[in-house]
Inverse folding.
């Protein structure tokens, strides 16, 4: 097996990876491809040898998203599609909670996260002890947890949700009030879409909380006909200033269906790159904010994970059973 440092951009690699580069040429200068191509080529070869699949979140960089991923999507799609694979090995190109969810749904498979430090400020904002205190304070009120939580937190809650199904999940419980955690802004957004009373936690996404409504209005003033689509982890003034609010997958569908001439995607940077690669009719107005956790995943550490079958995601069996139940209940909720 070749080490990453030994891989070269040979004529064979150049020829074999040309169709892959074609998919992302609108967002990657050709001069960069010789650096990525040998890794892409070796990862795709090793995937076959290992019977492995790569699940990549929409925030992964184009060389991962378009170059080596087998399944791409938002947190909901990655969780749902993780249950369908017959691969022996699942590599999660995303953050740790996504890899834990994949492991919960595939307890007998090897699940790898190329960098165990790929965390999430929302997942870190709440612990299982906090959930127990909330239950004492609000007896009998069901707890809905965004999937951006640890397996230990999922094990304490009634049901999970993602930004793609939060309203449906809350309403599926048939109760007048729910505790919704940890994202305060997603909770507030859900509260605008339902009559169910929402008790929120005060967690925030460190990437989305940096956007402001004033910044959006400033962009509107500078770019005629700008369509603004925002992720619901953004603060309320940003969501009020947006034309459409949805999960990363719904943002992608919005651009594919409506084909706006000019769009501002108020979310993580790589989203615009990944969507721009296949949306020649749309101009993408940046800026964006980078998620430092998502960016810990690289072609080099994906290759290393496939080579060594490490680092593996393991979940304490005592937590796995109740956490799997909360994720399973979410997957059973019918989408609208
Ligand atoms: P999505 O489920 O919408 O992809 O969001 C996940 C996430 O971490 C956004 O910051
Ligand atoms: Fe977590 Fe925010 Fe990064 Fe998503 S973008 S993984 S919510 S820190």
């Amino acid at each position: 097996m070749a080490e990453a440092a030994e891989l070269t951009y040979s004529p064979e690699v150049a020829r074999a990876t040309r169709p892959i580069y074609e998919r992302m040429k609108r967002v990657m200068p050709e001069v960069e491809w010789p650096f990525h191509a040998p890794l892409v080529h070796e990862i795709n070869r090793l995937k076959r040898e290992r019977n492995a699949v790569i699940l990549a979140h929409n925030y992964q960089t184009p060389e991962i998203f378009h170059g080596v991923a087998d399944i791409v999507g938002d947190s909901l799609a990655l969780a749902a599609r993780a249950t369908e694979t017959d691969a022996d090995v699942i590599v999660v190109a995303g953050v740790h909670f996504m890899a834990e969810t994949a492991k919960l749904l595939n307890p007998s498979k090897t699940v790898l996260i190329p960098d165990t430090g790929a965390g999430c400020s929302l997942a870190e904002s709440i612990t299982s002890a906090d959930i127990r205190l909330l239950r004492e304070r609000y007896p009998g009120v069901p707890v809905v947890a965004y999937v951006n939580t640890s397996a230990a937190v999922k094990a304490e809650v009634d049901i999970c949700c993602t930004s793609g199904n939060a309203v449906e999940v809350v309403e599926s419980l048939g109760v007048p009030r729910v505790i919704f955690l940890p994202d305060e802004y997603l909770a507030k957004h859900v509260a605008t879409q339902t009559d169910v009373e929402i008790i929120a936690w005060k967690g925030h996404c460190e990437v989305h909380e940096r956007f402001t409504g004033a910044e959006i209005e400033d962009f509107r003033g500078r770019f005629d006909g700008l369509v603004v689509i925002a992720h619901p982890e953004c603060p309320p003034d940003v969501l009020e200033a947006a034309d459409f609010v949805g999960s990363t997958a719904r943002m992608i569908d919005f651009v594919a269906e409506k084909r706006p001439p000019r769009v501002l995607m108020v979310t993580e940077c790589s989203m615009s790159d990944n969507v721009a690669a296949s949306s020649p009719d749309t101009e993408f107005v940046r800026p964006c904010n980078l998620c430092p956790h998502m960016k810990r995943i690289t072609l080099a550490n994906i290759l290393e994970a496939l080579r060594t079958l490490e680092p593996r995601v393991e979940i304490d069996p005592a937590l796995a059973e109740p956490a799997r139940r909360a994720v399973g209940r979410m997957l059973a909720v019918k989408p609208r």
Residues 33-50 form the longest helix (18 residues). The domain at 4-119+294-308 is CATH 3.40.50.10800 (Rossmann fold).
